[in-house]
Design a protein that fits this description.
Keywords: DNA-binding, Repressor, Transcription, Transcription regulation. Helices cover about 40% and strands about 25% of the residues. With about 250 residues, it is of the alpha/beta class.
Length: about 250
């Protein structure tokens, strides 16, 4: 196996499992740990993985995006804490946007049941979970359904959004960085998110720490567009402070 084949195998393993360990890769591939570390550095330089202490995880890109089913298995305790903290930011909002993805789905579940709410969403999973609530009116955006995320996109969704003024939007992303803002792999998804940012009075970003510093293909918002960012304590405090200098309050749970 030459270096290119080995790096392809490492990348495939990271995408299948969600992360890879240097020691295990070295044993599986029959090479030294230093060779694996060198391969990971090359993959990181190409924007395909992010290295961690002792391993790496894949970066979502135009050519790779995890499915909703996969996301429900990763960082679940962190996502649950983030969702609970994000839902506490509801305030007096009467109309709420819930983004696609597992963390926004958990936010939807955490919304109060004892007050009237109108929830707009592209997520079939979030809509299904909220539709039976007595005090909640659900507006599901129309459009093409993406099978991997079970969410609607394209001009039908953006046209519906253009007629709304939304009090509060809970928005996710595949990556967030101070330099490039919030990004996602698919242009159709990016268009929906960008329209939500435009028509919403308040915007909250929620995402686990490994989203930070990651950059995907399509940019849809600046960090400064958001009043609050909710993440977990895996994001170092020093890095959180750097994001706060761009405007939003940073909540680490």
């Amino acid at each position: 196996m030459d270096a290119e084949e080995r790096r392809r195998e490492i990348l495939d393993a990271a995408r299948r499992a969600g992360s890879v360990d240097v020691g295990k890769l070295a044993a599986d591939l029959g090479v030294s740990k230093e060779t694996v570390r060198r391969d990971l550095r090359v993959l990181e330089d190409h924007g395909l993985v992010r290295r961690t202490h002792g391993g790496a995880y894949p970066v979502e890109s135009a050519g790779f995006e995890t499915t909703l089913a996969f996301r429900t298995t990763m960082h679940v305790p962190e996502k649950s804490r983030i969702a609970a903290a994000a839902a506490e930011l509801l305030g007096d909002a009467e109309t709420v946007f819930i983004d696609e993805g597992f963390t926004p789905q958990l936010i939807a579940e955490a919304l109060p049941r004892d007050r009237p709410l109108t929830v707009i969403t592209a997520s079939l999973a979030a809509a299904g979970g909220l539709a039976t609530r007595e005090n909640t009116t659900v507006l599901l955006l129309g459009g093409r359904v993406r099978g991997g995320t079970m969410a609607t996109v394209d001009h039908w969704a953006t046209h519906m959004l253009s007629g709304f003024v939304i009090d509060l939007a809970f928005i996710g992303a595949n990556g967030i960085s101070r330099q490039y803002g919030l990004t996602t792999p698919d242009p159709a998804v990016s268009e929906v998110k960008a329209r939500v940012v435009k028509v919403s009075r308040r915007k909250v970003f929620s995402g686990v720490h490994n989203k930070f510093g990651a950059v995907s293909f399509c940019r849809f918002a600046d960090v400064s567009d958001f009043e609050t960012i909710v993440t977990d304590t895996g994001l170092p405090l020093t890095e959180a402070n750097r994001y706060s200098l761009l405007g939003p309050q940073i909540i680490r749970v």
